[in-house]
Design a protein that fits this description.
- Helix content is 26%, strand content 25%.
- The protein is built from 8 helices and 14 strands.
- With 339 residues, the chain is α+β, with helices and mostly antiparallel strands.
- The longest helix has 20 residues.
- The chain binds adenosine-5'-diphosphate and manganese (II) ion (3 copies).
- Adenosine-5'-diphosphate binds next to strand 6, strand 8, strand 9 and strand 11.
Amino acid sequence: MSYRAEYIWIDGTTPTARLRSKTRILSDWDKLPLWGFDGSSTGQAEGHASDRVLQPVFSCPDPIRGGDNLLVLCEVLNTDMTPHESNSRARLSPVAGQFAEQEPLFGIEQEYTLFKGARPLGFPEGGYPAPQGGYYCGVGAEEIFGREIVEKHLEHCLAAGLGISGINAEVMPGQWEFQVGPLSPLDVADQLWIARWLLHRTAEQFGVRVSLDAKPVSGDWNGAGAHTNFSTKAMREGYDPIITACEALGAEGKPLEHVSSYGVGIENRLTGLHETAPWDEYSYGVSDRGASVRIPWQVEIDKKGYIEDRRPNANVDPYEVTRLITDTCCAALERAFQA
Ligand code: ADP
Ligand code: MN
Ligand code: MN
Ligand code: MN
């Protein structure tokens, strides 16, 4: 018996990479083999030496095709088997390994906007819908646009066995969110990329486009983020480590280092309005949705838990944000709490 393996990879499009995939027919006694592709068509090679290598790193059931078929997430390698420069997963792996003993966990809230043609779902032709207010977690045809796509995507994620933890309608019409995690740095990022692929693939069947643009509509409309929730074992057990992590993210040079890898267009989204902090001013606070980093109220009461970095854009590379937060916070926690 043969099955279909959908090999999925992240391309070299700048400034924001896109997803690509192609199908390979495999026999069920095969292991998932290395495969190749034309890197000159994906921004990952020149035409005269165009071959790039796909190395499977994560696979799960394919909920679109069903049966024994698989989705296969791949890293992109050069033909000498070194990671291609676009391969940010290869840069996360050693950092995740270095701090694995601290057991870092991430939950990422992926916001996105559904578009039909040039307009978000729910935006009338040649005008604007009623201002923001009733759409967030709303119900009814006046408030909600695209729920059939969102529900289908959720079904697909669950059937694929992804660690999806919830969905909700967002503050602008046609804008939605799903959350992945809590999972380890590599797992949350791999599964978020697969969940994004499934979202594009599901919406495609409805003739709808998914935008991860950070500011899909200019003016008095919320942007789209990827709030990144983070904890280590020590943070899940006590409050001092929570504060250490918040301080570490604000240490000299860190805010700019982080924000410059938190997705293109961040200065258009982190303006200080619409539940954001200005991109060039770092702050943290309890329950504060106008801070860069929020300590949830329950965490302050329990004196343990996790923190939420509210800065990452919807278009962030999850390998980048998890690498930066793990590196910054785990190194500081190691200095503060280990002799
Ligand atoms: P918000 O109130 O900001 O909208 P959400 O419910 O959308 O919050 O998302 C919270 C996220 O935090 C979820 O993805 C959840 O998995 C994650 N999370 C919960 N506990 C932890 C933890 N200890 N470490 C890391 N992430 C966590
Ligand atoms: Mn949320
Ligand atoms: Mn949200
Ligand atoms: Mn949030």
